[in-house]
Amino acid sequence: MDTNWAQLIIDAIQLGVIYTLVALGLTMIFSIMNVINFAHGEIYALGGFATYYIFLRYLSTYLGGPGFINYFLTLGIVFLLFILLGFFLEKAIFRPFRGNLLGGLLVSVGFGAALQTAMTLTFGPETKGVPGMFSGRLVVLGAAISGQRAAVVVLGAVIISGLYIFLKKTKIGIAMTAVSQEKEAAESLGIDYSVMSSLGLGIGCALAGIAAVLVVPVNYVDPFVGHAYLMKAFIIIVIGGLGSFVGCLFGGFILGIIESFGGYFLDMPTSNIISFSIVISFLILRPKGLFGREEK
Amino acid sequence: MLPLITPGYYAIHTYTWLCIYWMLAASLRFIMLIGAVNFAHAGFMGIGAYASAVLMMNIHCSFWITFFLGGIISALLGLGFGLITLRLRGAYFFLVSFALCEIIRISLSSYWIGTLGGVTGISNVPQPNAVLGVEFGPDSLNSFYLAVIICSLVLISLYVIENGYYGKILKSISESEELCQSVGINTIKYKVVVFVIGCFIAGITGSLYASLNERITASDFTYSLSMFILVCVVLGGQEHIWGSIIGVIVLVIIGEEARSTALFEPIIWGVSLMAVMLFAPRGIFGFVTRFASLAMKRSSSSLKIGGDKQWLS
Question: Looking at this predicted complex, what is its ipTM?
Answer without folding.
Answer: 0.82
